[in-house]
Amino acid sequence: MTERSPIIVAPSLLAADFARLGDEIASISRAPWLHLDVMDGHFVPNISFGPPVIAALRKHTDAKFDVHLMIDPVDPYLEATAKAGADHITVHVENAPHVHRTLQTIRALGCRPGIAICPATPPEALSQVLDLVDIILVMTVNPGFGGQSFLESQLPKIRTLARMIKDSGRDIVLAVDGGIDPTTAPRVVEAGARMLVAGSAIFGKPDRDAAIHALEGPFKEDSA
Q1: What is the mean pLDDT of residues 49-72?
Q2: Is residue 42 annotated as involved in ligand binding?
Q3: pLDDT for the residue numbered 218
Q4: Is 88 flagged in the annotation as binding?
């Protein structure tokens, strides 16, 4: 019997009640990571929040702040995001023209660097940055809004990136974001994902601990 790699569930704050964010964070105390989507209404068609809100939330939890910057330009906001309390900063390969420099800057700021990839972008676009990232985030919906349906077309991409990570020999967390629920979670984990970002599947439930367990529980068992 061999133990499967632990699966990280990161509740997405985008699905929380913004009028009571402190209480919402308290309701997901079992989650080791908290996913924060920063949107600018330019790179994606929605506006969420920025470094001041991240800084205000930092004192409410010890969870790792997994910050996903969906903004353009991104480089001018890296330092402010790090200072606000981010532990991880993920940027998009689609809007970072000098992505090597961007990822190096994130690490120099004391954060774990991540790279996100949109549904229409091929996995090979990340081949030249595998030595610089700790996290790869596969968008399994088109970014900008919560509550969208999972895109089946992204399963082969997850499998390809899982192979690329294995071949790199690096310990890179392969994450997925979009349409993750108890039905889709086992499928993306089977494809190679190690971290699940989920919004409405957690914050849309009255018992958030049970909702998190429903996503992570099946993958904690030993397998032959």
Answers
A1: 96
A2: no
A3: 57
A4: no
Q: What's the half-sphere exposure (Cβ side, CA atoms, 13 Å) at 73?
A: 8
Q: What is the CA radius of gyration of the chain?
A: 16
Does 177 show up as a binding residue in the annotation?
Answer: yes
DSSP 20: G
Tell me which of 17, 62, 131, 177 is the catalytic residue.
Answer: 177
Q: Do the Cβ atoms of 131 and 164 come closer than 8 Å?
A: no
The percentage of the chain sitting over the pLDDT mark of 70, rounded to a whole number, equals 94
Tell me whether residue 37 is one of the annotated catalytic residues: yes
User: Is 146 flagged in the annotation as binding?
Assistant: yes
Residue 10 phi/psi, 5-degree rounding, is: -115, 100
Distance between start and end Cα atoms, the chain:
5
- One-letter amino acid identity for 148? Q
pLDDT tens, position by position, 75-93: 999 999 999 999 999 999 9
- Strand 64-70 relative to strand 33-39, pairing: parallel
Q: pTM of the prediction?
A: 0.93
Give the Cα separation of 194 and 6 in Å (integer).
Answer: 7
17 classed as catalytic: no
**Between 145 and 107, the higher pLDDT residue:** 107
